[in-house]
Design goal:
8 helices, alpha/beta, disordered C terminus
Length: 223
């Protein structure tokens, strides 16, 4: 801690509820398409079903050399064989998750405000943070205030070097701006599953990150 950003993909792929595709199958398709970092995000699921999906997703990710983190629950992360956990403001405490999972696990936290950023920087137990929302997204209930690009840049500056993946309505055309703002990458969910074109959508995000070695899409717009 802090995590070397080069150790993880600049694109964190987040699984999505309610699309008619099991989370384990989402992880499999994402990894087959080239994803190297997946976050399992299941809201409101019964624990047994959640754990079963997490175990299967961990196997799918590890078979292709990808990393899996579980949203919200360090216990599920530990029991499933996932590589770590991502915790929001209302989840189990960051320090508690670190104690449970140990020093080798990945522990990430959500940052939505200046106070969150300062707490994350001082915590001494996080590997990375998710900063957002960049713009409005219907994926998350009770969405915090939208930050915009300048707000994201300001919070990243307060993180004391913690790598940040930006979340919330991110599009491929944002990727270059996010890199210039100091982000280590972006976390994307619903945009990966638009039209069922997972492979095509993932490639669009991956090649939009400067330095990916592939042609980028049209120039990023200002936010």
């Amino acid at each position: 801690m802090p995590l070397d950003p080069q150790a993880l993909s600049p694109l964190m792929c987040i699984t999505l509820d309610g699309i008619g595709l099991a989370h384990r199958d989402q992880a499999e398709r994402l990894c087959a398409a080239g994803a190297r970092w997946v976050q399992l995000r299941m809201k409101g699921a019964l624990r047994a079903a959640w754990l079963a999906e997490a175990r299967a997703a961990a196997l799918a990710c590890h078979a292709r050399g990808a990393v899996l983190v579980v949203n919200d629950d360090p216990g599920i992360a530990q029991e499933s064989g996932a590589d770590g956990v991502h915790l929001g403001a209302r989840d189990c405490g960051w320090a508690e998750a670190r104690r449970l999972l140990g020093g080798r696990a990945i522990v990430g936290g959500t940052v939505n405000s200046r106070e969150d950023a300062e707490r994350a920087a001082a915590s001494g137990c996080l590997d990375y943070v998710g900063v957002g929302p960049l713009r409005f997204t219907a994926t998350k209930r009770n969405l915090p205030p939208v930050l915009g690009l300048e707000g994201v840049r300001g919070l990243i500056a307060r993180l004391g070097g913690l790598p940040a993946w930006v979340i919330g309505g991110v599009e491929p055309a944002d990727m270059a701006d996010l890199q210039r703002a100091g982000a280590a990458g972006a976390a994307v969910s619903s945009a990966l599953f638009l039209g069922g074109r997972i492979e095509e959508n993932l490639r669009s995000f991956a090649r939009a990150w400067p330095g990916s070695g592939e042609p980028a899409p049209a120039a990023a717009r200002n936010s």
